[in-house]
Automatic annotation (TrEMBL):
Cited Gene3D superfamilies: Clp, N-terminal domain
Name of the protein this chain belongs to: Clp R domain-containing protein
Domain spans labelled Clp R: 3-188
Pfam families membership: Clp_N (PF02861)
UniProt entry tagged with the keyword tRNA processing: no
Keywords: Repeat
Length: 188
């Protein structure tokens, strides 16, 4: 990707996402790792937006929701509800798998063995977030891709991070209002 077009804050988010993936021995960096890295930051436009929307003090709830989704093999709550409509109880499946294989067995994280030397790969969803961040920056006529563009991309891509953000009142519209609209936005 065009890493040279990333601001210092956006680069720190990408590096932080890699560290989160390494911390749980994940097979690849995913969109959830990008969101966790954004939550860790205390500087940058995305941090400002998250604080203005009240998410700074609810970061633990977001981390917990991401962890629960990881335990469900990355299924969003909407996916779990759709499966429930078909008579499939995701919670029961997770409980049975964890009973046999241990807690977190469905997460795809590798608990044993080391990672081969080299760069950690980015999963399809993380690549899509970074590509969307680029598109958002270009559409806004911004010269560089900032951490705020990564946050905006997370809010519009379907999946667990976007769902978790929306559950906490952080939407594309609310972030745009805080960053570009000059008005105050309240999380719902």
């Amino acid at each position: 990707m065009m890493f040279e077009r990333f601001t210092k804050d956006a680069r720190a988010v990408v590096v932080g996402a890699v560290e989160h993936a390494e911390g749980v021995s994940a097979g690849a960096v995913d969109a959830g790792h990008l969101l966790l890295a954004l939550l860790d930051r205390e500087a940058g436009r995305a941090s400002f937006a998250l604080a203005a929307l009240g998410l700074a003090e609810r970061g633990d709830a977001v981390r917990e929701a991401l962890g629960e989704a990881r335990r469900r093999a990355g299924l969003s709550q909407a996916d779990a509800e759709a499966l429930a409509g078909l008579g499939i109880d995701v919670s029961e499946i997770v409980a049975r798998v964890e009973e046999v294989h241990g807690v977190g067995a469905m997460s795809g994280d590798r608990k044993s063995g080391g990672w081969r030397a080299g760069r950690r790969s980015f999963g399809r969803d993380a690549k899509e977030i970074l590509e969307k961040a680029l598109r958002i920056a270009v559409a806004r006529r911004d010269r560089h891709i900032g951490d705020e563009h990564i946050l905006l991309a997370l809010t519009v891509r379907p999946g667990v991070p976007g769902e978790v953000l929306a559950d906490h009142g952080v939407t594309y519209e609310s972030v745009v209002r805080v960053l570009y609209g000059g008005g105050e936005a309240k999380a719902g």
